[in-house]
Write a structure and sequence with these properties.
It is a single chain. It contains six helices and no strands. The radius of gyration is 22 Å and the shape is globular. It has helices at residues 3-33, 35-59, 71-97, 104-133, 139-170, 177-216. With 217 residues, it is mainly alpha-helical. It holds the Pfam family Mpv17_PMP22.
């Protein structure tokens, strides 16, 4: 092996370490100095990408519907100005309530508040917002969506959230946990949004077939 090759091999890990250090510093500065703004931008970006990906997966073939719709800016607004501030408020409130308390009882109480109060409120706000974005015009329509879909959504949340949280706390470095959770939100949001769009496409197609059948007869 030549001296030049050896130097290149040694330089590569050094460059990667330097880039990682720069990334860590940038993330730390954003999350510590501007936590709310960072969360707003991240949430808006994730929900925008989720909407685009799910539309492509559900409609991304000729005749199945557009990929870019009016829902894209609405989802971005929800992510940046509703979801992120609400999440930030609950997180900072819980951190202040349990600051300096590291015992098992405190952790249990914090988890209880998270799963019995915080997550249900966040999911209810999400469902209400999605109902409005999807065209709900009355309070009763929004209530119906929340009433019928909140419990099924909570069952999924209660089943998945503890597992994801455990993986994040035991595997992912603390600085990268927000990125990990954001990536998970992108994946799970894209999956459920795609399924919902495909269901709407199937329902619309079935209704169209029912309308045509009497005419054919």
């Amino acid at each position: 092996m030549s001296a030049q090759t050896a130097n290149s091999t040694m330089a590569a890990p050094s460059t990667l370490a330097k880039n990682d250090a720069v990334l860590r510093h940038g993330l730390k500065e954003l999350l510590v100095l501007r936590p709310l703004r960072t969360k707003m931008m991240t949430s808006a970006s994730i929900l925008t990408l989720t909407e685009l990906l799910s539309s492509y997966l559900a409609y991304g073939r000729p005749g199945y519907g557009p990929v870019v719709t009016s829902r894209v800016p609405k989802m971005a607004f929800y992510g940046g100005f509703i979801s992120a501030p609400l999440s930030h408020f609950f997180l900072t409130t819980l951190q202040k309530m349990f600051q300096g308390r590291t015992g098992r009882g405190a952790k249990l109480l914090q988890a209880l508040l998270m799963y019995s109060l915080v997550l249900p409120i966040q999911n209810a706000v999400y469902l209400a917002s999605m109902a409005v974005i999807s065209g709900a015009n009355t309070v009763e329509q929004v209530r119906t969506v929340v009433r019928t879909k909140l419990l099924p959504m909570m069952k999924v949340t209660w089943a998945v959230s503890p597992v994801v949280t455990a993986v994040a706390e035991n595997v992912v470095p603390p600085l990268y946990r927000p990125l990990f959770m954001s990536l998970f939100s992108l994946c799970i949001g894209t999956f459920f949004n795609t399924m919902a769009k495909k269901q709407r496409v199937a329902a619309a197609r079935k209704a169209e077939e029912l309308e045509k059948s009497p005419k054919d007869e």
